[in-house]
Amino acid sequence: MRINSRTLPLIAARARAGRVVAFDTETTGGTAWDEICQIAAAEFVDGTLARTMAVYVRPTCPMNPWAEAVHGLSMPFLCEHGVAPEEAMERFFGFLGDDVLLVAHNAPFDLRMLRQECGKFDLVFEPSGVETCCTLALSRRLRPDLPDHRLATLVDALRVDGVNSHDALDDALACAGVFFKLLESAAP
């Protein structure tokens, strides 16, 4: 969903009275050949945390060394603790359900990785009633005064409880905190 003066009140209303799922992925890299190696989500109902999910995924492609340096997930760890990509996506989509506002920081990247993962493993990515909101775009619109709009910067600037640790669940919760604080600051 584009962030503008018409959609901002709709996003805020959905955040106050509806389901919001903030999610994040960690990946083996950022190319068309890379895969998700962790996915996590936090569900908020009427602005209150209801539940969370997180799953490690056994990738079928190599781990890019720079990606491992960012999130610290090694192939041996993922082979031991991860599930098959199909199972991970099934868990995520089961958690997501329908009629939800799906929130991510830099949502185009995470959504591209979801679609890419689904395409690679012949899975369908067609949840119904799902709108998306990108906290990166939201912060650029509402907080142009900030030096940058990285998640860590927003967590600090908005005094959000949480941390941008590059663990998908930590980052999903931090993203949700940023989302709600940004909307709170935009309220008339």
Give the N-terminus to C-terminus distance in angstroms.
Answer: 21 Å
Order of helices and strands: HEEEHHHEHEHHH
Helix/strand-derived category reads alpha/beta
- State the CATH superfamily name: Ribonuclease H-like superfamily/Ribonuclease H
CATH architecture: 2-Layer Sandwich
The major β-sheet equals: 5 strands, mixed
- The proportion of residues forming helix, as a percent range, comes to 40-55%
Overall spatial form = globular
At the third CATH level, what is the topology name? Nucleotidyltransferase, domain 5
Q: List segments where confidence is low: pLDDT < 50 over at least 5 consecutive residues.
A: none
Q: Biggest sheet, strands in spatial order? A: 3-2-1-4-5
What fraction of residues sit in β-strands?
Answer: 15-25%
> Strand tally, please?
5
Q: How many domains is the backbone divided into?
A: 1
Average predicted confidence as pLDDT: 94
Describe the structure.
The structure is a single chain. The chain is α/β, with parallel strands linked by helices and about 190 residues long. Helices cover about 45% and strands about 20% of the residues. It has one domain (about 5-185): Nucleotidyltransferase, domain 5 (2-Layer Sandwich), CATH 3.30.420. The two termini are about 20 Å apart. β2 (about 35-45) and β3 (about 50-55) form a beta hairpin. It has a five-stranded mixed β-sheet.
